[in-house]
Design goal:
The chain is 29% helix and 16% strand. With 283 residues, it is α/β, with parallel strands linked by helices. Helix 3 packs across helix 5.
């Protein structure tokens, strides 16, 4: 029985590690300029007229999809998967009065662009292929931010000339595009700490974490959620309290299949930052 127990534990750990190794992190972290923007706009954002129950999704935003061909000269991604991801995003963003549509899909026949490294090749890529007044989505084989790989990267709405999202092709089917669009429209990750670490009690929710008070305090879920969507972490906050995070929020680093919600105040922020910074995208 003793050996069986050890064997079961080893198998369980292997399964957890196998599951975790297949996951890549979100490559977007808060910039100081956007944190400053959040603070300046916070009162205005929370008084901005917004009724989630009566929004008519009349705002249609065009997407320009750029598929970068790989070394073998193939796309490495199915257009139906891309359309599925856009449909998923629309299911969420309708609650902020926004809908996306694919305006054009083009193929970039230069595999040198298929491995995106932050600040390397991007200016040349954007100069050649990006289109104004569209959200340009570049699908690549690999994205590297700093020393580590991520599944996607984009810019916050206060940054000029920031109509770009980069996404790894293997993440083109699912909620990852929705997460990137969330950042693009002003949402921080729920585990963000650049502006301060949120307490488990959420008492500092308006000045730390994601600066939103109806999301759970999140210590970071990357490799801390197993295949059954159960949180296995043991992190404590600065007061020694154990975190009890949600594994379901779209803006978390929970596995894709576990993510299924945005909160009313997250929708408010999307709505506010779209109207303040992104209205030029209206078709």
């Amino acid at each position: 029985m003793k050996n069986t127990g050890k064997g079961y534990l080893i198998v369980l750990l292997l399964l957890i590690n196998c599951f975790a190794s297949a996951q890549l992190p979100d490559g977007v972290t808060a910039t100081q300029s956007f944190l400053d923007t959040l603070v300046v706009n916070y009162a205005d954002e929370n008084s901005f007229p917004f009724d989630i129950s009566s929004l008519d999704p009349a705002v249609n935003i065009p997407l320009m999809i750029h598929i970068i061909m790989n070394k073998k000269g193939s796309a490495g991604v199915d257009q139906n998967d891309i359309k599925y991801s856009v449909d998923l995003a629309n299911g969420y963003f309708k609650n902020a009065g926004i809908q996306f549509f694919i305006d054009t899909i083009e193929y970039i026949n230069d595999y040198n662009y298929s491995f995106i490294t932050y600040n390397n090749l991007k200016k040349e890529l954007l100069t050649k292929y990006s289109i104004n007044n569209r959200i340009n989505i570049f699908l690549a084989d690999s994205i590297k931010i700093g020393s580590g790989k991520s599944y996607g990267f984009t810019y916050f709405p206060n940054e000029a000339d920031s109509n770009f999202i980069y996404l790894v092709k293997s993440y083109a089917r699912g909620n990852s595009l929705t997460t990137m669009l969330g950042h693009y429209m002003g949402l921080l990750s729920t585990h963000e700490t650049s502006g301060g670490r949120e307490l488990e009690s959420e008492k500092n929710c308006s000045s730390a974490g994601d600066f939103i008070c109806d999301t759970y305090a999140d210590p970071g879920l990357f490799n801390e959620v197993i295949d059954s969507c159960k949180y296995i972490g043991t992190m404590r906050d600065d007061n020694g309290k154990y975190f009890i995070p949600s594994v379901a929020n779209i803006m978390s680093d929970s596995p894709d299949k576990c993510k299924c919600i945005l909160t009313p105040l997250q929708y408010r922020r999307i709505y506010y930052y779209y109207h303040k910074y992104r209205q030029y995208l209206i078709n």
